[in-house]
Amino acid sequence: MWLTQLLERNRQCFPDRAALVDEHRSVTWAEFHDRTVELAHGLADLGIERGDRVAVLSKDRIEVLESYFALARLGALFVPLNHSLAVPEVADIMERVGAVAVLGESDLLDRHPTLPPSVKVRMALDKPAFEALGTIASERELPDITDTDPIAVLHTSATTGRAKGVTVDSGSFRAIALGWLVMARPADDIVMVNCCPLYHGSMVVSLTYLAAGATVVLMPGFTPQRALTAVERHRATHMWLVPQMLRFLLQAKGSRTTDLSSLREILYGAAPMPLDVYAEAVERLGCGFRQVYGMTEVGGPFVTLGPDEHPAPGDVTARIPCGRVVPGMSARTVDGSGAELPRGEIGEVVVRGPGVMQGYWNDPEATREITLDGWIRTGDLGFVDEAGRIHLVDRTKDVIIRAGQNVYPSEIERALLTHPAVRDAAVVGMPDEDYGEVPLAYVVTEEDGDTDAARLLAHVKELLAPYKRPRRIEFIERVPRNPAGKIVKKLLRV
C-alpha cells in the first residue's frame, strides 16, 4: 500500500532527516514510520477496524498526518473535517459517512459536545492519552491493505452547495505522486512550508513531496508573519500556498526584512494568479514559480506549469496557462455532447486516469452526474493550446448568458484588477428582463484607493466589449473566499 511503502522507503533512505515539523516539535522519517505503526496498533485496540470511517478535526499539526498514515495502515478511512465548519455541518458530515470515531484538538472537540450515535471513540490529539496510544498496545497482525482499498473520504470545498465526500484509494495517491514528481523533478533536500490546510484535497501536494523525502513544515493556520518566520527559521526551499496568501505575504511589513533567500520555488493553485501579484513576487523574491491545477475528485494536482515555462510578467496579457497534465493522467476539453474539441476551442475540461476517485461517498447519483463516458467532469471551462498546455477560462456554473452570449466573470474580474485602486473583485450574474442575465461586479478597493463606480466602468470600457461590461458595481469590504482561496459566489448572487 502506497502510504506504507512511502514511509518504509524514506525510513530506509533518510532515517535521521526531519520528515515533519510543526510549531511544537519535529519528527524524523524513522520516528514518523515507527509512530505510525505504534499508533495503528493503538487505534486497533480501541476497536477501529478495516473499513471504519474516522473523522479528524484539527488544525495542521504532526499528529494529523500521523493519524492519516496510521488509519490507512489499518484500512480505516480518514475523514478530514474543516475545523471552521459550524456544529451542524460537522455533525452532518460525520453522520453521512457513519464515523465511528473522531480524533481532534481538544478545543475543537469541545465545540461539539454532542456527536452522532455512530461515534464510539472521541480522543484529543493534544492530550497525553493520544501520545500514549499504542505504546502498550497488544501485538496483532495488521491487515494487508491493497491499493484499491478506500483509505480516505475527502470533502469538496462546497463553493456552490453542500460538500460532497470524495472516496479515494491508495492507488490514487500513488498515481498522482509519481506523475507529479516526474514533472517537478524534486531535489533531495526540499524543505516545504505548507500554508494550506490538511483537511481537503490540497493536502495531496504535501503527500506528494513527502513521497520524495521532503521535509514538510506545518502551521496551525496561515498568517503572513507565521509563514515568513517558518521560511526563515527552517531555510525553506519551497512554499505551497494560494495566490491570496502570496498577496498578503508581499504586503506584510516583515516581508522586506525576513531572509527569504533560501526559496527556490513557490507552488500556487486553487485560484488564478493575479498578474500584479505575480509581477511583484517575481521582482522581490527572485525564485521560481510552479502552478498547481487540481481537483479533489481526480486525485488532487494533475496539471502543472513549471518555473522554466512561466512567462516573464511583462509577457502575460490574460492569465498564466495551467500547464500540462502529469504522466499517467489524461485531460481534454469537450463540448456539450462529450465530443473532444480541437485545440484552441473552449469547452469543459474532463480528466481520467488512475488518480480519479472511486466515487462520491454513498451518492451514486452525484457520481453519475460528474462522470462522462469514464471521464470526470471538472466543471472548468478552458482550452488546450498548440503546446498541449491547458488554459482555464471560467467555471461552467459561473458563466453568464447575456442574450445568448457567453460572458466569463473571470475576464471581467481581471479587467477590474488592472485598476490600481482595486484590491479584489468578484463578478456574478444578476437577472435582467431584457437580456436574461447581466454582470454584477463586487469590488474591494485598496485602503488608499480613490475611485468610484463611474471611473471603474470607464476603465473597463477600454478593455471589454460592451456585452461584457458590468451593469452595476458594488463596493464591499471583503470578497468571500474559502480557505483554498476560491471565491464563494453563492454568497454574492442576487
UniProtKB/TrEMBL annotation:
Pfam families, alphabetized: AMP-binding, AMP-binding_C
Protein name from the UniProt record: Fatty-acyl-CoA synthase
Organism, scientific name: Streptomyces ruber
InterPro entries: AMP-bd_C, AMP-bd_C_sf, AMP-dep_synth/lig_dom, ANL_N_sf
Keyword Ligase: yes
PANTHER family: LONG-CHAIN-FATTY-ACID--COA LIGASE (PTHR24096), MALONATE--COA LIGASE ACSF3, MITOCHONDRIAL (PTHR24096:SF267)
Gene3D superfamilies listed in its UniProt record: 3.30.300.30, N-terminal domain of ligase-like
Transmembrane segments: none
Domain AMP-dependent synthetase/ligase per the UniProt entry, residue ranges: 8-361
UniProt keyword Ligase present: yes
GO MF entries: CoA-ligase activity
AMP-binding enzyme C-terminal domain location: 411-486
Swiss-Prot/TrEMBL keywords: Ligase
Recorded family membership: Belongs to the ATP-dependent AMP-binding enzyme family.
